[in-house]
Amino acid sequence: MLGAGVNNPLHEIETECLVVGGGPAGYGAAVAALAGGARTWIADRHGYLGGMGTAAGLSCYLNHAHERTDLAGAVYRRFVRSQAALGCHYYDSLSQADFFEPESCKRTMETDILEAGGGVLYHSVLSEVERRGDEWVATFVSKGARTAVRCRYLIDATGDGDACALAGARMTHGRRSDGKTQPMSMVVQLGGFDPRAWHASGRRLVEGRYAIEGDQFTEEIARARAAGEWTIPRGEIAMFWSMPTDPTRVTINGTRINGLSACNPLETSRAEVEGRRQARELLEFFRRHVPGFANAYLLQTGPQIGVRESRRIVGRATLDEAQVRARALPASSVVLCAYPIDVHSPEGVGTQFEKTGRGHVYGIPWECQLPEGLENIVAAGRCISATHEAAGSFRVMPTCMGLGEAAGVAVTLARREGLPLHAVRGEDIRATIGVARRETGAPPFDEVFVFDPSGAATSDALAGAASSG
C-alpha cells in the first residue's frame, strides 16, 4: 500500500491482465486469460459478478443456435453445465434461452476466478486510465481509498466502454443519426405466481414446471391502456419466465424507459426512479389480466436498471447491419452469433425485430474489439465497434461472454508470442477457442463453417453438418 493520506490511502496491484467489468464478457475474459496462464484480476463497481444477469436481474440468456450447432464458446458451455449441476438452470428450446438463478451465478463466477488463481476487486469505480511505458495503470475509487492497478493487458468489459474512453479511444454513442440509444428497462420479479392456474388457461409449462412467454399480451395491454391502467411506452410484454429453483417466482422484462443515457448519472438516476414506478404498474397489470397472477406481489426490482446500449469504441473494423444480414463470415471472426437484429426504438413503443430463416449466423471479426490507435487494450461485450443496428443483435449475454473469451484467449496468445494484442490473428484466437469447444463436446467452428479471407463468404457455405450435442 502506498501512502496517499490517512483518510484516502492508495493501494497498488500489479498483474499481467486486468479485466474491468464483471458481467458475462468480463467473466469470459478472466476465465480464458487465467486458463492460458496469465495473472489476472477482475474489477467491478458492485460487490459481485454477473453484470446485467445479476445486477439487473436479467436471468434469461438468449443463446440462439445455428440449426443444431451451439455457437457459444467453451466458457459459456461450462458455465451452463455448472448451473445445471447445481439445479439452478433450465433451457427452453422454443425461445432458445437458458435460465439461471442470479445468486448461483454470482457465487459460481467468483469461485471460478478465485480457484483459478485470479483476484477480484469489488466496490471500485474506474476513474482514470493512463499509459506508462508499456503498461496501463487503471485507478479505481471506492469508499475511503483508491486502488491503482498496473497491467500489461487491459480488457474493457464495462458495457459502456469506460476503460477505453478514459484511455483516449474514439467512441460512438447510440445510433448514427442522433446518438440516441435503445431504452433502458427495469427487470421485475414477482412472487405468488400459480403455475397450475396458468397451465389451466391453456398456456404451456416447460418441463411441466416453468412458465415462459415472449412478445405477448398485446390485446390485454391495449385494454389496460384504454382503461387508463397502462402508461408504459410499449405494446407488448417482451418476455417473462419462471425461476429455476422456484416456479412461483417469475421475472418480467416489460418496462421501458426512453430517451435517457446510461452514461449520464443524472439521467440514469431518473431511469431508476421511473423503472420502479413502472414496476408497480406492471404488477397491477399482471394481477388483473394474466392467468396465474391474481395473488402475485412485487418480490424485487433489479438492483440496477437494465442497459441495452450506450457507448461503443471506434475499432480497427466496425460490424454493421449489412454484414449481419448478409451472414458474413470474415476470416478473422472470433465469435459467431445467430441472434437476429433486435432494436427497441429509442422513442415510442416500437421494436425492430428481424426474423431470420434457418442457417442465419454471422461472424464478429477480432478487429472490432480493438480500439483504433491504442495498444494492448481490448473491448469485450456490447461496447465493441459496431453500428446501432448490428449491436442490437450481438448484445445478448452468451455472445458477450464469447467476446470476453476471445479477449482472454488473445491475451494468452500475445503473452506467449511476445506480441501486442493487435498483432494476434483472429484465426489463431478462433482455433484456440475451437480446441476448448471440442473439450466440451462441441465442434470447432472451422469444422462447421467456411471462413473467407475476403469476408464475403456467408453462413450458407457450410463445411459439413455437425451438431453440438
| Percentage beta strand | 15-25%
Task: Note the total helix count.
Answer: 11
Strand order of the largest sheet: 7-3-2-11-23
Radius of gyration: 22 Å
Poorly predicted regions are 456-469
**Secondary-structure content class:** alpha+beta
Count of strand segments = 23
**Gap between N and C termini, in Å?**
50 Å
- Overall pLDDT score: 94
Oligomer state of the chains in this structure = single chain
The residue fraction in helices comes out at 25-40%
Largest sheet: 5 strands, parallel
If you had to describe this structure to a student in words, what would you say it looks like?
The chain has 469 residues and is α+β, with helices and mostly antiparallel strands. It has helices at residues 24-35, 74-85, 102-115, 162-167, 195-200, 218-226, 265-289, 321-326, 388-394, 397-417, 426-439; strands at 10-14, 17-20, 40-43, 60-62, 89-92, 97-100, 119-121, 125-132, 135-142, 145-151, 153-156, 171-173, 188-191, 212-216, 237-243, 246-253, 297-301, 311-313, 333-337, 342-344, 351-353, 362-365, 377-379. It has a five-stranded parallel beta sheet. Strands 14-15-16-13-17 form a five-stranded antiparallel beta sheet. Helix 1 (24-35) runs parallel beside helix 10. The termini are far apart.
